[in-house]
Amino acid sequence: MSQLRRQLSTRHLSMIALGGTLGTGIFLTSGSALYIAGPISAIIAYLIMGFMVYLLMNSLGEMSAYKPVSGSFCEYASEYVSKPFGFAMGYNYWFNWSITVAVELIASALVMGFWYPGVPPIEWCILFFVGILILNILSVKSYGETQYWLSLVKVAAILVFIVVGVFIILGFNTEHQVIDFRNWHQGHFHNGISGLLEVFLLSGFAFQGTELIGVAAGEAKDPQKSIPRAVKQIFWRILLFYVVIMLIISLIIPYTDPRLLNANNTVALSPFTIIFSMMGFHYMTGIMNFVILAALLSACNSDLYSSTRILWHLAQKGSAPKLFAKVSRAGIPVYALMATASFGLLAFLCDYFGSTQVFLILVNISSLAGFVAWYGIARSHIGFRKHYLRAGHKLEDLPFQSHFYPWGPIIAMVLSLIVMLGQWYVLLIDGQMTWSAFIAMYIGLPMVGLLWLGNKLWRGMMR
Q1: Is 431 exposed, middle or buried (CB count within 10 Å of its CB: 0-12, 13-18, 19+)?
Q2: Which of 171, 193, 215, 240 measures 20 to 30 Å from 387, CA to CA?
Q3: How far is it, in rounded angstroms, from Cα 21 to Cα 116?
């Protein structure tokens, strides 16, 4: 047996995409984005990335509704661009989310340190890893249902945060003063172009996961209807959750607030926790930590699901051992799941040995790999349209039609390249241009190039 089961509804698909985005990016790194770039630059960066994601979701929605397959990234890239391109995109995306599984687990363990500071983080990593693994071994419907409720917790917390933030702005705070735009009067474009480019990477990392709709398409009920509906819903949720939240945070918290970053330039306190404390709700610290924990575990759940389906698809197409194409009676690719989970465990060594440099390298790999995947989606959409029209089909017959073609995918490709190459400028301007920093930032790009070249040469020799 090698086929997955279609058990995911529109409700599940929407929350899978939302659950993939509502993680560390919104609860933690939104504060560092404000600190790095200032209020206006941070909001502009999130607006631009949100617009880019909407363009990408339209491109992906058009392809996924027409041809719903699990692991759709490498499928579309292989069919509509080239086989080597699809091979490289598939392994890039699998590698990206396999690494992120471990990153989210380590972050979850560190959150647990708030309540149990004496417990070694590696023990929480193991506990959460086993729990997430069990959820993914069960039927895909169990995964979708769990993801739905975990995401619902995050959505509820965010809505409460928005309401509390509005009350604080209106003067219901410990100082009993209405908050105006005084925090915007200085530092609104802090660090200039460098700050904007740096936040592009942070906001892009925050948005990565919306494309999970495409990965889950092969297990969606009635994908011709559920995928277009999910694409439309996710845009408004992105606009509400990210842009509105960044606006509230920037109005209430000055970008110079030392609580946003610690001495090592990493996240110190969540902006959510800071804002709740400003209203006198000090007990909310523990509650927000629980919500952040749910957010991280939910994102980890999405990461393991998506990377497993990518490896399963690679095996289906002969680009990975056939063993990974086998599925259980419940329709779960168990061998692909185990291989992916085992790969993710390697990153636990970073936390276990306290190797901060290695951990940061893995985070950078994950971030840039996400932009490579987005570039691949946009490029595949251009190839898809040409292929579709060349076959004599009409655009009116598409289950879902992107309204931004051809400029949508072109803009998405250009923005992806600007973000990836712009990090070189950030390192140069910040005076951090060393070989170790450069390699830590860009180590993933030559890996993708080698995968593409190696597969192209191999296919040439096999002819």
Answers
A1: exposed
A2: 215
A3: 27
Per-residue pLDDT at 413: 95
Task: Measure Cα distances from 220 to 13, 68, 74, 214, 451 in Å.
Answer: 8, 8, 18, 10, 30
Q: What is the structure's pLDDT at 82? A: 92
Question: Which two structure tokens, joined as six digits, stand for 227?
Answer: 């995928």
Nearest to 68 by CA among 220, 170, 229: 220
Write the DSSP string, 152-198. HHHHHHHHHHHHHHHHHHTT-STT-----SGGGSS-TTTTHHHHHHH
- Residue 340 identity (one-letter amino acid): T
Owner of token pair 């899978």: 16
Residue 463's SS3 state is: coil
User: In this predicted structure, what is the pLDDT of residue 263?
Assistant: 46
Q: Quick one: which of 302, 258, 242, 215 has its CA closest to 27?
A: 242
Q: Terminus-to-terminus CA distance in the chain, angstroms?
A: 30
Q: What DSSP string describes 215-280?
A: HGGGGBSSHHHHHHHHHHHHHHHHIIIIIIHHHHHHHHS-TT-TTSB-TTSSB-S-HHHHHHHHTT
Residue 190 backbone class (left: φ over 0; alpha: ψ -120 to 50; beta: rest): beta
Q: Give the DSSP H or E segment for 201.
A: helix 192-207
Structure tokens at 435: 């070989």
Q: Give the helix ranges, DSSP H, for 268-355.
A: 271-278, 284-316, 334-345, 348-352
pLDDT value at residue 415: 93
Contact 306, 215 (CB under 8 A): yes
Which domains are assigned to the chain? Answer: 10-458 (1.20.1740.10)
Q: How far is CA 47 from the centre of its chain?
A: 16
CA 452/CA 459 separation, integer angstroms: 11
- Where the chain has pLDDT below 50, the residues are 1-2, 4-7, 263-267, 355-356
Question: At which residue do the structure tokens 């740096």 appear?
Answer: 198
The neighbouring-strand residues paired with 267 are: 261
Supply 181's token pair.
């735009």
C-alpha distances (whole Å) from 239 to each of 48, 53, 72, 188, 245 are 11, 11, 25, 21, 9
From 447, 140, 89, 151, select the one nearest 304 (Cα to Cα): 140
Q: How does DSSP classify residue 392?
A: T
Question: What was the pLDDT predicted at 21?
Answer: 59
Output the CA–CA distances (angstroms, integers) from residue 6 to 43, 69, 72, 179, in the order listed. Answer: 38, 10, 15, 50
